[in-house]
Design a protein that fits this description.
Blueprint: H1 4-24, H2 31-44, H3 50-79, H4 82-93, H5 98-116, H6 118-135, H7 141-153, H8 163-168, H9 176-201, H10 203-206, H11 221-242, H12 248-266, H13 270-276, H14 279-297, H15 301-312, H16 318-334, H17 336-350, H18 354-366, H19 376-387, H20 394-423
Helix pairs in contact: 1-2, 2-14, 3-6, 3-12, 3-14, 4-5, 4-6, 5-6, 5-7, 6-7, 6-19, 7-9, 9-20, 11-12, 14-17, 15-16, 15-17, 16-17, 16-18, 16-20, 17-18, 18-20
């Protein structure tokens, strides 16, 4: 039997090493293997109980159901060329202007992120955009970086825009009306500030002309049905959110219903779609929930709780800016999903006020625009590029992120604080 004090040290070490190996992705081994390996080690060494692990997995269920729904819908949209159709519209509507194409790609990316989550933008829209810009014979990097940055910059306009939103507020998701009051203006400023920075950064490439116009790609009847299904699912999720209900089950049920309709119409095998779901991502999320509960079990959360309580006692707006920037930078050290879990548990334990909780969420969602290690969406974006034989290094992303992230984060936090002051009784 391991002594309690030593057990705490070993538990903390296993968690830290697992997250580090997850970020390093040695030999391209998926993140889930490192996290689940760490959880298995904690169980084998009896540093956590099976009851704790089961309880943590239960808490992850809503997030996992949400991810299943979004991944199913994204795969349907990809298979029936909805994303190819959107990207071809952007290229044709650009009328030969690279800047206009950039603005249209940014707009499409924002819409996909807001209504289908940032992972859809990173994983499914990015390859479609790459195919379109290659056919147009223009430099692809400005448009690919656009997909990565808008996937985070627009990811807190709605609760459904980022799985991290569900992670941070897994104890109590605010109703839609309260969410919009808190996050609508900060999100719009984040989107606008990031657009301006990317526009200036790629000004030389965007001053060029599109060399070739691709052929028109009409959306077939099934694609239109998928698009209608997306609209119906968004409506269902927003309705659930307006009542403050969990979003995982509605997302999953809506996606299953849409899949059944499409597969029946096409006489397709639904299990083919099921194979395209990244089940390892779901296992990864469950493992993270277990690890955060393990950290909480050894008392590690008291340090983050004490820090957040200290930040709350700083004069307005210092506490909010310190919190938002600290969380935003920390994302890039441990990734936003584990950090979102830690931050959400800390906000709940410290009974954080609304402005601090808002600053935490903005930091979790927007902070990953600093580097490629900041969010699961950005890592998935990088993997999608590597599949297409494009290599974007850590420094390539950081050079833009070190300018874009702080400016957008400052604008978002400033507007969030101002909104709280204006609406205070």
């Amino acid at each position: 039997m391991i002594a309690p004090g030593f057990a705490h040290i070993v538990t903390a070490a296993i968690i830290a090493v697992s997250i580090l190996l997850m970020l390093l992705r040695l030999r391209d081994i998926p993140e889930a293997y490192w996290i689940c390996g760490g959880v298995s080690l904690l169980l084998v060494l009896r540093l956590i109980t099976p009851q704790l692990a089961t309880h943590a997995v239960g808490k992850a269920l809503d997030v996992c159901l949400f991810l299943i729904g979004m991944m199913l819908l994204s795969e349907l949209a990809r298979e029936h060329a909805v994303f190819d159709w959107l990207s071809s519209i952007a290229v044709r509507k650009a009328n030969g202007s690279c800047f206009r194409l950039f603005a249209l790609v940014y707009t499409v990316g924002a819409i996909v992120t807001i209504f289908m989550s940032n992972d859809a933008t990173a994983v499914v829209l990015t390859p479609a955009i790459l195919t379109a810009v290659r056919k147009a014979k223009v430099q692809p990097l400005p448009y690919l970086f656009t997909c990565a940055f808008i996937a985070n910059a627009a990811s807190f306009l709605l609760p459904i825009s980022n799985p991290a939103n569900l992670v941070v507020f897994h104890d109590a998701m605010p109703p839609l009306a309260k969410w919009m009051i808190a996050f609508a203006v900060p999100s719009l400023l984040s989107i606008g500030a990031t657009f301006l920075i990317l526009r200036l950064w790629f000004r030389r490439e965007l001053s060029e002309k599109i060399k070739e116009q691709p052929q028109k790609k009409p959306l077939n009847a099934t694609g239109k049905l998928v698009l209608a299904g997306v609209a119906a699912m968004v409506a269902a999720l927003l309705t659930a959110s307006s009542f403050g209900n969990d979003l995982g089950l509605p997302a999953c049920l809506a996606a299953l219903a849409i899949t059944a309709v499409i597969c029946t119409k096409e006489r397709a095998n639904p299990f083919v779609l099921a194979r395209e779901i990244s089940w390892s991502t779901l296992v990864f999320v469950m493992g993270l929930f277990v690890m955060v509960d393990a950290a909480e079990n050894i008392g590690a959360m008291r340090y983050t709780k004490e820090w957040l309580e200290w930040a709350q006692h700083l004069a307005l707006p210092a506490g909010e800016f310190v919190t938002g920037f600290a969380v935003g930078i920390a994302n890039n050290l441990v990734n936003n999903l584990p950090l979102g879990l830690i931050a959400g548990s800390t906000v709940h334990a410290a009974h954080a006020n609304n402005t601090i909780a808002t600053a935490v969420l903005i930091g979790v969602d927007l902070g990953p625009n600093l580097s490629i290690t900041g969010s699961l969406a950005t890592i998935l974006w990088l993997i999608a590029l590597r599949k297409e034989k494009l290599d974007v290094g850590f420094w390539d992303f950081l050079k833009i992120g070190v300018v874009a992230m702080p400016i957008a984060l400052f604008a978002s936090l400033g507007s969030a604080i101002l909104m709280q002051l204006l609406l205070a009784p």
